[in-house]
Amino acid sequence: MDIKPNLIGITAPELAQSLADMGVPAAQVKMRRRQIWSWLYAHGVEDIEAMHTINKDLRATLADHYRLEPLKVAEEQMSDDGTIKWLFQLDDGFRVETVYIPEPSRGTLCISAQVGCTLNCRFCHTGTQKLVRNLTTAEIVAQVVTARHILKDWSRHNIEGASAGANINRHISNVVCMGMGEPLYNAENMAKGLNIISDGDGLALSRRRITLSTAGVVPEIKPMGEKTGVMLAISLHAVNDDLRNELVPINKKYPLAELLAACKQWPNLSNAKRITFEYVMLDGINDSDAEARQLVRLLASIPAKINLIPFNPWAGSPYECAPPERVKAFADIVNKAGYASPVRRPRGRDIMAACGQLRTADVKKSAAEKRREATPAPAGARA
Ligand code: SF4
Fold first, then answer.
1. Is residue 3 one of the residues assigned to a domain?
2. What is the CB < 6 Å shell around ligand 1?
3. Could you read off the pLDDT of 276-291 as tens digits, one per residue?
4. Cα of 108 to ligand 1 centre, how many Å?
5. Are 56 and 91 found together in one domain?
6. Does residue 223 lie in a domain region?
7. Domain with 29 in it
8. Ligand 1 atom closest to the CA of 118, numbered from 1
9. Which pTM was predicted?
C-alpha cells in the first residue's frame, strides 16, 4: 500500500531527523519539532495546515512527506453505564477494539496491542482469534489521539488555561494496555508508543496512570519497565502451574515461579508503585477459599494490588462467572490480608464488552453487509 506515513506515532528523535532531512536549518530543528509535537499532541489538530505557528513552506513540505490521520471508526457501541467501545479500522482494513470507561474520578482508555492474539488464554474471547499482526507505533498512539478527538478531549484543558498536557479535567486520564493482543509480543512498538503517550510536552499522561498488562512474557517484563516507567499488571488467574497452564497457556513456557521472579525485577517496585494482579473469577475453577489463601501467600513478598474480575461470559466460552457470594467470600479473604477493594465492577456488559467480541462479530459479517455499511447514507438520513 503506497501511502505516506502518519505523523501520529513518529517518535521525537525520528521527527527531528526527518525535519533535518527536509532541509530545516540545524538551529531550528529542535524548535520546529517541539511546535509540531505540541500541535499534534497538546492541541490535537487534525490537519497539518492548521499548525499556524509553522511557516507555510514547511507546512507544505511536511504535507508532502506525511499525512495526519486518526483512525476510522468502523463501529461504535455505547453502554447504559457510559462505557464506549470502538472498532477502529486500520489502513489495511483490519480492525481493532478500543474501549473508554468513564468513572466519577477518572476516565480509562483500554487500548489494543495486536490484531488478534497468539496466546489462547481460555477465558478470553480475543484468544479465539488468530494473530493477524502487531500494531504499529502509529496505530497504538492513534487509538489515544482518535479517542480524544471523539470525546472532544483537547479543548477543555486549553480553554481552562492549563499548560500543554496538564492532567486537568480530562476525559481520558488513564490508559491501560489490556485490549486485544499481548503487548510484550509487540514490545518495541509498545514502548515507543507509551513513551509518546506519556511525553510531558504532548499527550502527557502520567506514567503512573498508564498500565501495561501481560499474560507473562517473562524475558520482556524488566526491559519494558526500564524503557517506559509505566505501571505493570499481570494476567494471573490461577495460583498453581497446573491450572495456569490450562487458563493461560504461556505459563507452560514461563511458569509461575519465573513470572513472580520477573515481577520482583520491575523497576522502582514499592508500595507506591505496586503491581496489579488480575484474577478472573471462574465458577468452580479457581474460586475456592483455598485458592484465595494461596493467592495471598503467593504475592506476600511483592508490593501488589489484587483485582478480582467477575467473568464476562461470551457465547461458546467454556466457563461461567463465579456466583456473587463466592466472589464475596474470595474477596473477603483477600481483603483481610490487606488488599483493599479487590473486586472490579463489571462495565459495559450490555455492549459485548468482553475483549475481542466486537471484532469477532465484525469478522463474521458478510462482505455484502460491510459494503452496505461503507455506502454513505442518503443526505438527510440519520442512523
Ligand atoms: S488475555 Fe490477552 S494475552 Fe490472553 S488471549 Fe486474551 S488478548 Fe491474548
1. no
2. 117, 119-121, 124, 126-127, 180-182, 215, 235, 355
3. 999 999 999 999 999 9
4. 19
5. no
6. yes
7. 12-65
8. 8
9. 0.89
